[in-house]
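Figure 2 data, in text form.
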Amino acid sequence: MRRWRNALIAGSLSAAAASAALFALPAKAESVSLVVEYQCTGGIASTGPVKLRTEVSIPTVLQVGSTLNLGWRLGYIEARTFVSPGYFKAGARVTLAGKVQLSGKAWNGVLEPRGGKDQGELVPDRPLALPEGISDSAHLDKEGEISIVPGELEVDFTPPAGEEIVNDDAPDRIDYGPGWDDDSDQPVEYGDYQRDVHTTTGAGQTAAFTFVGTGIEFIGRQSPDSGRARVVIDNASAIVDTRHPTTIQGNVSLWKRDDLAYGRHTIRVTSLDDKPIHLDAFKVHTRPMIDPPTLHRSKCVIVNNPATVKVIVKGKTSPSTTPPTTTTPTTTPTTTPTTSGPTPTKTSTTSPPHHQINPPEVVVVGPGQVRTATTSSPSAGPTATKYVKAQVAKTPTGGVETGEAPEPSREPYLLLGGGSALLLASVSGGFVLRRRRAAYAKGVQS
């Protein structure tokens, strides 16, 4: 008898562990990973085609009222990258904008996932950093199916707004023709920018400067012996007189233009007299822009063959489950049969919604009495506790009346309560064995 009890207890513990394992299983999300590869040309892809790889995890089953979020991670595939189109102080921004076609009963339209990345100080052809990803979302308010098809990408470069001073001693940016001299360590009292200028004393000498922006200033020096210069930009020209009647003044704005369209421009300063012309610096202006300029735009086309992703949008109630009807719960009093001992306590059974199934419940009726109350199957109403004849011919005093186990349900989610029910039944079985053993011993003695 001891071996039977130990085996029964071990089986109960195993059942409890199995039940706990079932309850601990995490729900697995339904999603697919979509990989799209692009090849980009033009604009900031000036050194050759740039290849990008994007990846997004798309949920394939959603509910009405939820949001479909498309977040694309992206990166360069090869060593070739987008590059800076010029000299810029910190604050330029690279932005990516894509197009994703959504079509179907649940949602029909185009999403435009976007993302951006600010850049540090730039020089021509310096690699540009990409944003970590781009994203957009759609609120789902209808049931049905959605087909997701990725489209092209556009990559833009927006320069920082503000001013940039380019000193005269930047030979990699300013193209001096013959006849220009670099005059460094100028007297502090002249006020030249960084105490240096480039000077020409012969007529017809030209210096040229190419920049990207929306405006430019010619910064120079005025003095009593200075001459005139012609300034030409975008086929427009002006005559500038750099003379000052009495004093020498450096770092003076001799000519300015701030109404240019954003883009690449070249300014040329040419001396007109055999008198000194002092070039101190150029100041580049860039006004704020709401939209990125198209000058630096790269267009990216898909080069692999990504699959079309189907997304199912379900109603808040699963199609396979009939929505529960809200009714007033009915309570049916159930009275146990008369037995020896204390009067059994009355219990009430509340009818659960038809899509819910409760596991068997052990109810303690009185001293020495344990019964199993079973709930109805999904299609049946509430039932009273069912009793069967005891398994022994004669129930010993204080013995236990055993009940029938409920019919096994075919519903898959009854598995969740199965382990717990087996544990409870095992505990009851332990009480039964102990009572029967006591009765047997008493019969032998008599």
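Caption note: The longest strand covers residues 45-59.
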